[in-house]
Amino acid sequence: MIYKTLAERLRIRINSADFGIGDALPSEKKLAAEFGVSRMTLRKAVDLLIEWGLVRRCHGSGTFVAQKDVQHETRGLMGFCELMKQLGRPTISEVLEFKIMGAPPAIASQLRIKTDERIYYSRRLRSVEGKPLVLEDSYMPGRLFSNLSVKHLEGSKFSYIEDECHICIAGNYESFSPILADSTVAALFHVAEGTPLLRLTSLSYSDTGDYINYSVMIRNANEYHVDYHLQRNKSCTGHVRPA
Q1: Which runs of E-coded beta strand occur in the chain?
Q2: Phi, psi of 3 (to 5 degrees)
Q3: Of 54, 72, 28, 69, which is closest to residue 208 (Cα–Cα)?
Q4: What local confidence, expressed as pLDDT, does residue 4 receive?
Q5: What angle is formed at CA 73 by the lines to CA 70 and CA 79, rounded to 5 degrees?
Q6: Can you tell me the distance from the alpha carbon of 3 to that of 40, in angstroms, rounded to the nearest whole number?
Q7: What is the pTM of this model?
Q8: Which residue of 143, 181, 195, 222 is most buried, as measured by CB atoms within 10 A?
């Protein structure tokens, strides 16, 4: 539903550095015009934000930020090349496929764009010290990245987005699931067919609320070990922020 997508985009905006606790949101009229929706759709989106505890509506005064849920800090989010560089590990990104195509319905839904809208599709094999570790299928909106090339993809995609396109990456949604290697992946990773691997989907968004990259990555779990340090989202007053 449109209002749910709009609520998620407003949620990202509220959690950015643009707003602090107690700050007023722009008027419903202004927000409706900005996102190209009706006042009714905008109001339903704001009602969701109220339900999530992020904003409060004061009749006659406006709508104000009540609290932030997740602090979208980029310092904990690093691209593969950035991480390997920090660890001093030589990295090669081999671009196996690169093309411009119309967005299939499933990808359009992830990126919140129209079906058949122009996107870049790429498949990269990421290797460290000669060992293939990650196979990545990536989808990026063409309207945001007019000059994306194979050369960019052979380097750091995050650096291209931020340093060349001047788009600030605010955060990432990730999902993990176990899979077994099919014949294609097994050949690329030099493992036996049926070897357990890890599938990761990653959806990156900018500080303006645009979804800028959707990737499906397969990690060679036998060679690539990842540790996560997650901090508990809890305020000093003892109130747990909503998930």
Answers
A1: 55-58, 62-65, 91-102, 118-128, 131-141, 169-180, 196-206, 211-219
A2: -70, -30
A3: 72
A4: 85
A5: 120
A6: 9
A7: 0.61
A8: 181
